[in-house]
Amino acid sequence: MAALLSGGCTDEGGADEGTVEGVGTVLQVNGSSTYVIQTADEARYVPVNLDENYRVDGRVIYFRGVVPGGW
User: Fold this and answer.
1) Do the beta carbons of residue 63 and residue 6 sit within 8 Å?
2) Which residue of 7, 23, 61, 71 is most buried, as measured by CB atoms within 10 A?
3) What are the pLDDT digits (tens) for 15-37?
4) How far apart are CA 30 and CA 2, in angstroms?
5) Dihedral sign of CA atoms 63, 66, 67, 71 in order
């Protein structure tokens, strides 16, 4: 498991702004350059600055970031 300190994530569910952290699986979206982090409870976060070293489909990581609100 790798540690990831992310400066920002967006929650596809539209959560209020705040810090989020946990363990999730990195998933590549339809072979594109977009990745999401999915947690065990199926919450999905779209990292805005996921380091290239963590862009591995299926990799389990620890993450922490900020979910912007009001969108």
Assistant:
1) yes
2) 61
3) 457 889 999 999 999 999 999 99
4) 23
5) negative
Q: How many Å apart are CA 70 and CA 24, to the nearest integer? A: 24
Q: Around 66, how many Cα atoms within 13 Å sit in the side-chain half-sphere?
A: 7
How far apart (Å, rounded) are the C-alpha atoms in residues 45 and 38?
Answer: 6
pLDDT in tens, 30-63: 999 999 999 999 999 999 889 999 999 999 999 9
Phi then psi for residue 66, to 5 deg, are: -115, 130
The tokens for 30 are 């339809």
CB 9 within 8 A of CB 62: no
CB-CB contact of 49 with 7 (8 Å): yes
3-state secondary structure of 9: strand
Q: Coil, helix or strand for 42? A: coil
